[in-house]
Design brief:
This protein has helices spanning about 5-20, 25-35, 40-45, 50-90, 110-125, 140, 175-185, 225-240, 280-285, 305-310, 325; strands spanning about 130, 135, 170, 190-200, 210-220, 245-255, 255-265, 270-280, 295-300. The chain has 11 helices and 9 strands. By secondary structure, the protein is an alpha+beta fold. A hairpin with a 5-residue loop joins strand 7 and strand 8.
Amino acid sequence: MAELNLDKIYSSFLLAIEDTDTLDKLIDIQKEFLGKNSVISEERKNIASLNDHDKKKYGQKIKEITENIVNDIESHKLKLVKAKYKNREEKEFTDITIDWFENTGTKEHIISSVMEEVVQIFSSIGYTVAHGPEAETSWHNFDALNTPIWHPARYESDTLYLDKKLDNLLRTQTSTVQVRHMQEKKPPIYIVSPGRVYRSDQLDSTHSPVFHQIEGLAVDDAISFTDLKGTLEFFVKEFFGKDIKTKFIPHFFPFTEPSAEVLVSWKDNNWLEILGCGMVDPNVFEKVGFKKGTQGFAFGVGVERLAMLRHNIDHIKNFYDNDLRFLRQF
C-alpha cells in the first residue's frame, strides 16, 4: 500500500487555518483533517495492513501530524476567543468611572500657572530667572542673610534640619538663591527666584509646611527705595489690576534695612499684606564679597497667597489635595 505524503497534508492544513477568522470555520477545518471521514482517519485504519516495520514508522508519523494539527487548532482557537472578547469589549463595554477617550490634553496646576505669570511680569522689565537647591546649608539660608545664631527663625521648631549639627536644612526661603547668585555674578543683577520652600509650620488655612515663594533681587548703581516702590507698584497692578491701591508700612527683616510690607486695598476695603521687601542690608553684600557702598533691594512673595487672594480660595490645603473638582476651575 502506498503511503500518503503526510507533510503535504499538514501544509494544506496550515494554509486552511491561516485566514480562518471564526470558530465555526475552525471547527469545519478540524473535521476535515481529523474527523471520521478525514484522510488521516482513513490512513490510521490502513496501518493494520502494513508489516511490523512500516506499521511502527508510519504510525509514528500519523501520530506526530495529528498532534501538530490538534495543537495548532487549540492555539488558533485561543487567538480567536481573545479577539472575540476584545472586539466585544471595545463595542459594548462602558466604564462609567472614567472617560478613557477624553482628549483634553494637559493643564498647568494653579500654583505653576500663578508662578509663571509672576515670573513673566518681572521678565517684561528685564529680570531673569535664577534657581538653586532646596536642600541648603545654614550659611546660605541664615548666616549670609544676616540672621544671627540666636534668631528665632533658626530654632528647630521653625526649621526642618537635615542633620544633628544643624548645618544643613530644607531652605526656608528662596533668598538662598540670591546669595548663591551674588557669589557667582557681579552687579548689575536683576533676578527672580521661584521655588518650593519648607518651614516647620502647622497646617491651617494660610500656613503649610511646604509652600512656594518668588523672591527678587536688584543690585545696581545708585538704586534706591524709590526704585523698589516703583517696581512693586508695577507688579501689583499687572497682577491684580490697574485700579488696585497699595501702601508700604515699616517692618523688620534681618537681611534688609529699611524693610517694609506691601499691602493692597481689597474688596472689603481692608488692607491685606501680600509681600515683604526692603533695601539689602550692607552685611549681606559684605558676606558675598561685594564692595562697600553697593546698593540693592530685595522682595519676596508667597505664590499660594497671591492665588488665594485672586481666586478667593479659603484654605491653602486645597492646592495640595489633588481634587480635580477644585483644580479644573483654573
